[in-house]
Write a structure and sequence with these properties.
465 residues, alpha+beta, Serine Threonine Protein Phosphatase 5, Tetratricopeptide repeat, OB fold (Dihydrolipoamide Acetyltransferase, E2P), 4 domains, 5-stranded antiparallel β-sheet, 5-stranded mixed beta barrel, 18 helices, 12 strands, 47% helix
């Protein structure tokens, strides 16, 4: 009789050491018993989870964790391929992906596991308790492979690196719009000195992460040797966007060096002062590049930070660089600004009664100036849901949705709102704030179709002409 049920019982009771001993003995006695192998595999899975928990709670140092975790993976590999794909096989990979940053042997395990064994469930995004969606196991596997490609621990195994790069390219072919696949690919290309290819890969990443300092820093690195002005603009944008000093601690050093090379010593000195202050305040080591900048004559003459005038990068320069990297044709959609929320720093652009999008003030230059009633055009790349470009539209209306209406204003006694009545019998709702701005009983307004509180469609005035 198979010992699989007994092994499972011990595991579920939390008696992992006993379960492991039984599993090892059972497998040694009956190497072909698939029931023992399944029970054995779930015991190893429990140990993998336990190792990750211990590591995350800093109960074990990184070298010890890697050695023990990879030991469990090696034990599973003895029999794990006998029944695949299945739930256990995927769950073991899931634990390996979670530990991939701390495991030098992750790539070798991923190659043994073989991504072709991913199941349909492995390709589905995971829904978190709060309703948000997390990447699928498939995507997290490819992200982990991308990270590992740039790890020094894999530098000596050319065959393994070639396999990983093949996986990376295949993943990009299947998911060409995924920004993180492009991000990891760009890092690998940078490691290999292929800066122009890396820059093309980074463009969709920066478009998706325009508010992230790290994205602009990485893009700036691709320009440093060939186009220092563009590199300065990207690094300056990273510094502007950084929420915490640590995000741009190294970026400031690179930016200062580039500025100094152009003779822009005041601006360079500002970056050196900030880079030094961050490290001194936290007791961090001063890297050689920063020591050299701080020891220069031009910096010695600029010891007073408050007296230095920063040379701001021209507004929109970083955005223009990003736009210039767009290679795919844009599809443009016309919409009208139907709401402006200054406290939240955003506007809403409506394409129809049922469809629209939000633009934050810092998404594109000029968005903060938009007012309700302005018709704009948003440019989209491929199947991306977020716009990559923004421009004012020359068209005065959007057919069947937004146009100018002229007529007389009607307001009933006791009501704060009113209606604009046209000679053609059209009736447009006028909100209280706009009604107060009308000034005359005859007016022309920009109106769009919208639903009222009861869900009925009708015209709504957005602004007066």
């Amino acid at each position: 009789m198979s010992s699989g049920p007994e092994i499972t019982r011990l595991r579920k009771e939390g008696r992992l050491d006993e379960a492991l001993a039984q599993a090892r003995a059972g497998h040694a006695a009956a190497p072909g018993d698939i029931h023992v192998q399944r029970a054995y595999g779930w015991v190893l899975h429990a140990f993998l989870k336990q190792e990750i928990e211990d590591f995350e709670r800093q109960r074990v140092p990184a070298p010890q964790f890697a050695r023990r975790f990879e030991g469990w993976l090696d034990e599973y590999r003895v029999f794990g391929a006998n029944e695949r794909p299945n739930l256990l096989y995927s769950q073991v990979l899931n634990q390996a992906v979670k530990a991939s940053r701390a495991c030098p042997g992750f790539l070798a395990f991923a190659r043994w596991w073989e991504p072709r064994h991913l199941t349909a469930d492995d390709e589905k995004p995971f829904t978190l308790p709060d309703g948000r969606q997390a990447p699928s196991l498939e995507m997290r596997l490819h992200y982990a492979i991308g990270r590992a490609l740039s790890s020094p621990s894999t530098d000596g195994d050319r065959e393994l690196l070639d396999w990983a790069e093949t996986q990376q390219r295949a993943a990009l072919e299947r998911h060409p719009d995924d920004p993180w696949l492009h991000y990891y690919r760009s890092k690998r290309l940078l490691d290999e000195g292929l800066v122009e290819e890396a820059r093309r890969c980074l463009a969709p990443v920066v478009r998706r992460q325009r508010k992230a300092a790290w994205a602009w820093t990485l893009l700036g690195q691709t320009f440093e040797t060939q186009s220092p002005n563009e590199a300065i603009a990207c690094h300056a944008e990273a510094v502007r966007l950084a929420v915490k000093p640590m995000e741009v601690a190294n970026t400031r050093v690179s930016l200062a060096d580039l500025l100094a090379q152009q003779g822009r010593f005041d601006a360079a000195a500002i970056q050196v002062h900030h880079a030094l202050a961050y490290r001194v305040d936290h007791g961090f080591r001063i890297p050689p590049a920063l020591q050299q900048l701080a020891g220069s004559r031009w910096f010695a003459r600029r010891g007073d930070l408050a007296a230095l005038a920063d040379e701001a990068v021209a507004p929109g320069q970083a955005a223009a660089i990003l736009q210039a990297l767009d290679e795919r044709p844009l599809s443009w959609r016309a919409g009208v600004v139907d709401n402006r929320n200054a406290p939240k720093a955003l506007v809403h652009v409506a394409f129809s009664m049922a469809e629209g999008t939000v633009l934050h003030f810092d998404a594109f230059e000029g968005v903060e100036q938009l007012q309700p009633g302005v018709i704009v055009e948003l440019g989209y790349l491929g199947s991306e849901r977020r716009p990559s470009r923004f421009r004012l539209s020359a068209q005065p209306a959007i057919a069947g949705f937004c146009r100018a209406l002229s007529g007389s204003i009607e307001q009933r006694e006791g009501q704060a709102f009113g209606f604009l009545l046209t000679q053609r019998g059209e009736r447009a709702f006028v909100p209280p704030a706009l009604l107060a701005q009308a000034g005359t009983p005859q007016a022309t307004g920009i109106a769009c179709l919208a639903k009222d509180r009861k869900g009925a469609p009708g015209w709504r005035v957005l602004a007066w002409r």
